[in-house]
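Review box. Two proteins, two foldings.
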Amino acid sequence: MRLDLETGELARVQRELQRLITTPREDAPAHARAARAIGCAHERVAIYRGMYRLRLAREVAREFPATRALLGPARFDAEARAFAAAHPSTSFTLDAYARAFPEHVRRAGAAPAELARLERELASVRAASSRAKGAQRARTRAATGAAPRLVAAPGARAVDFSHDVDAALARFERREAVCSPRRRASQLALFRVGARAARLRVARREAPLLAALLNGDPLELAVALAVAAGLAPRAIGRALERWVRAGLLIAG
């Protein structure tokens, strides 16, 4: 087929080929229309479709290595392929392509759905912007004479889980066998240190203090909320010291 670049024929053929590759094979009418539009046989397109979905499935595996270790390669790869078949990429990059995979795992009834959610949250933290905004806020406060605050690290967030996914991920990081997380309500503080995503466990009584600081509230208000929640002054001091030392909070 000769393509007329002047009239956009190449762009049309590219769109139809993309439709053939990303549309499920079961949708026979759509495939037939696209194939007729570019004069291409299903067998030829099958090669591209297989490579395309394999690439997407590999991206899922790259982002969820601990979940793969827990599920096992065979079960995980089957779920990754099913996800890729149902979620063709809508972007020219694969950044955050697999953000909906934890929900897919949950719907599939696989045990480690929360572990997948933790891995996705950590990937989002790694992609967070630099410290520049926090540093600028600190300089602004200093110039205006505003009260100093503890500025949250890039990507900082507090995430609740109903299972002890931190322990499961720690086992994977130590290259030990990954067991199904035991049911235990927990909260993790996730944040970026350099290019690395870090995490800390947060005690239940520490949660109001951290929530206020992550919200940008003044230290005095955050401490008052913590005291009202039953956290002793000495425990508040220990929590603040631990969070600053780890890089979760930055004095500004």
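Next protein.
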Amino acid sequence: MNIMEDLGVQSYALRGFKTNQQVADKIKELGLSKVEICGVHADFSEEDNFDKTIAVYKNAGVDIACIGVESFGADAKAAESRFKFAKLAGAKVISADFDLDTVPDCYRTVEQLGDKYDINVAIHNHGAQHWLGSGRMLRHVFANTNKRIGLHMDTAWALDSREDPVAMAKEFHERLYGLHIKDFVFDRASQPEDVVVGEGNLKLKELMTTLKEQNFNGPMILEYEGDVDNPIPALKKCVQAICEAAG
């Protein structure tokens, strides 16, 4: 695991910058070369713009490691454009949510498209209020789907669900297809606040050790949602903390 080669940034952390060129430039400023693009910076339903969007990152030397977070229902036509973008971009993972009202049809749709495009879809566990935020629900989904569907674990939202991200990485390692490396502290009302990774409740060094032991090779995406207008100083601290934790 080579952190500076494997680590990327979720473009939502750079949502204060509206063009893809700005996002690509900021990622290079961080010394990184991978991105997970979200809907703020790409319309995954407008196929005529796919080549233009992808070219911005390619020309900047930034690889599109994954896209998301995208919500999937049972409509294969609506879902397929996401797979087309990911395939054109060279991404192997889509971070995802599922529409509960369309279960289990949404699973079958994604499994079939995953096979067609050779792309895995990985659940973004979005906290205690999210229907897929707990380990219990993830176990249920994985018991009823094939391995095209896995986990894109968000470490901070796992904390919000009172889950241990390190334990989740161990338990779900066979279905762990990506990571959002993110950290929270909580106030007395249990409301979360983004902090530099390793400065909150995330056991960053233990997580890095676990990933090394598992030979994890999926997208490792840094996400920090604070300081919208100027997130670069905090993101640089995050990169440094991750590198130090990884040894």
